[in-house]
Amino acid sequence: MREFILKTDIDIAREAQPKTIDVIATKLGISDEYLERYGKFKGKVDLAINHEKLKDTQNGKLILVTAISPTPAGEGKTTTSVGLVDGLCHIGKKAMICLREPSLGPCFGMKGGAAGGGYAQVIPMTDINLHFTGDFHAIGAAHNLLSALIDNHIHWDNQLNIDPRRITWKRVVDMNDRSLREITCGLGGVGNGIPRQSGFDITVASEIMAVFCLASDMDDLKMRIGNIVIGYTRSNEPVRAKQLKADGAIAALLKDAFQPNLVQTLENNPAFIHGGPFANIAHGCNSVVSTKTALKLADYVVTEAGFGADLGAEKFFDIKCRKSGLKPDAVVLVATTKALKMHGGIKKDDLGSENVDAVILGCKNLERHIENIGKFGVPVIVAINDYVSDTEKEHAAIIDYCKNIGVQCKISSHWEKGGKGAADLAEEVAKIADSNSAEFKTLYDNKMSLWDKTQYIAQNIYGAAEIIADKKIRNQFQKLEDDGFGEYPICMAKTQYSFSTDPLLMGAPSGHDVPIKEVRLSAGAEFVVVVCGEVMTMPGLPRIPASENIDVDDNGLIQGLF
Questions:
Q1: For the domain bounded by 9-134+257-434, which CATH number is listed?
Q2: Rounded to an integer, what distance in angstroms lies between the CA atom of residue 231 and that of residue 363?
Q3: What is the 3-state composition of the chain as percent helix, strand, coil, each rounded to the nearest 5?
Q4: Pick from 66, 46, 15: which is nearest to 317 by CA?
Q5: Nearest residue to 481 (alpha-carbon basis) of 460, 454, 506
Q6: Which are the contacts of 427, defined by CB distance < 8 A and separation ≥ 6?
Q7: Do domains 9-134+257-434 and 137-253 have the same CATH topology?
């Protein structure tokens, strides 16, 4: 084991020497008229820059970072994304990163923050992991405004004839709160509205979040908000947000939030952090507007999609790219020896010992993800996110495995060494992106039925035998087809820990069934959410939540936030 002086992420972040945000903006050619400062080290970029200054600028190369199926041992996808962009800048490339904003739920729950780690972080770390620029609060308020307008409309005569039993629009809060999954609202008498069953989702599962991240401009945002289906009439006809005259007010709440957030890495390289849907319950990608703006500002743009490639990457390709016209040039698939050993059957407590056989067995999960990415026509390179506890034999086993299946594999030590440690990976990624070898295609055609699309994803990405659903669910699929939503892509809501719906079934299982529990229409986002197995759209807190270790010390500094 290599020796390394261990510091916490927050300590490393505090030792950084950030540049003021106007200096970072200048690196990208963003003049003062397009920069709105949020203190010294955060800013928002006016999207007017796209049609006033950048409209004739050629796009840079788009690089997607994804990962093997996540494990409790960790994969470090965000850390690798940050390390890669620092590595690209280290070798002299003009590069920037586009990430999602973290949710407060995991910060106070189990997963922790989402600003990278070690010497590959985006800063200011505590701001990013907490309230940041207030985007999530705006999205939550916008979502709940629509909830209030629905109940208010029913209270005052219900001219649209909305059936309270058929309202599909829940409320949201950006916190893991299992007690809010199922609620009864409107209790307490006539003046408090109509009693009905409802519930809460976490903000990152909100359709407003999805609309926010998929809209191409403000006009598109308003159109998508207006098209949201909030429920059905007593005659079972869909009711849209624009019928409640909600679209204008919701757009007003989102106006400032819709501008991309500009921050920096530890090495003072530019980063857009904007939007934040989870990939296990939503489409898992940062905003289209930040990605497209970045492609005009930099020669190489690194972005990530949440969780493993079976969820995040598939949705990046089949939803974000399909809807936006984006075409990725390369994919980086992140793996760690520890995670591969877990997929090889080793328990978390036993990961400290060298076990080459378990690594090789776990590579079956890696291979499945490589095969899946290949179905989209984009070249892939494997990045081993180097841990100081890794051994040379374990690294060699992964590299040899990849070589045998015809895939490049690079060790990246960004966590320990920053951009310098990712230089080899960056060189290879740039070479692949510049080769113009990508022949991007989506997995399925729009014309396929919703049921067939779902089955196709399950069989071709998850290795499943088939999807299964009761008659009620099958009828929901048919109803959506009859209502004109049949050409929408599918957004699978499924456990991130396995190709199956069983989080304990690791590795690369095949031949399993994928049970469908629920189907949700997201007419504004223009996709259909298919909820599989026991996945929750409102997570709960663990027995010992991370919040127990978070505090403010006597000097006013936040402690415990990784």
A1: 3.40.50.300
A2: 45
A3: 40, 20, 40
A4: 66
A5: 454
A6: 91
A7: no
Pick from 517, 526, 480, 450: nearest CA to 238: 480
In this structure, the chain runs to a length of: 562
Q: What pLDDT is recorded for position 87? A: 98
Nearest of 496, 534, 529 to residue 515 by alpha carbon: 534
Euclidean distance between CA atoms 300 and 430, whole angstroms: 8
Q: How far apart are CA 308 and CA 343, in angstroms?
A: 13
Q: How far is CA 276 from CA 37, 174, 219, 286, 503, in A?
A: 21, 11, 21, 6, 23
Least Cα distance to 151 among 252, 244, 251 occurs for 244
Tell me how far CA of residue 314 lies from CA of 306, 323, 356, 437, 442, in angstroms.
10, 13, 30, 19, 9
Q: Report the distance separating Cα 211 and Cα 227, nearest Å.
A: 10
The domain limits of the chain are 9-134+257-434, 137-253, 450-532
Residue 2, judged by CB atoms within 10 A of its CB (0-12, 13-18, 19+), counts as exposed
SS3 121: strand
Ranges of the chain whose pLDDT falls below 50: none
Residue 158 CB burial class (10 angstroms; 0-12, 13-18, ≥19): middle
Reading the block at residue 100, the tokens are 């999602």
- Strand-strand pairing, 558-559 and 551-552: antiparallel
Sequence-distant (6+) residues with CB within 8 A of 2 are: 388
- Does this model's pTM top 0.90? My answer is yes
Under CATH, to which class is 450-532 assigned? alpha beta
Q: What is the pLDDT of residues 461-495, one digit of tens each?
A: 999 999 999 999 999 999 999 999 999 999 999 99
CA distance 74 to 500: 19
Enter the tokens of residue 283: 């489409």
**Would you say 429 and 381 are in contact if contact means Cβ atoms under 8 Å apart?**
yes
What DSSP assignment string belongs to 329-383? SEEEEEE-HHHHHHHTT--GGGTTS--HHHHHHHHHHHHHHHHHHHTTT--EEEE
Query: Distance between CA atoms of 337 and 339, rounded to whole angstroms?
Result: 6
State the CB neighbour count (10 A cutoff) for residue 484: 10
CATH 3.40.50.720 given to domain 137-253: no
SS3 67: strand
Question: What is d(CA 402, CA 489) in angstroms, rounded to the nearest whole number?
Answer: 32
- pLDDT for the residue 558: 87
Contact 538, 201 (CB under 8 A): yes
Cα–Cα distances in angstroms (integers) from residue 140 to residues 16, 136, 200, 327, in the given order: 32, 6, 11, 30
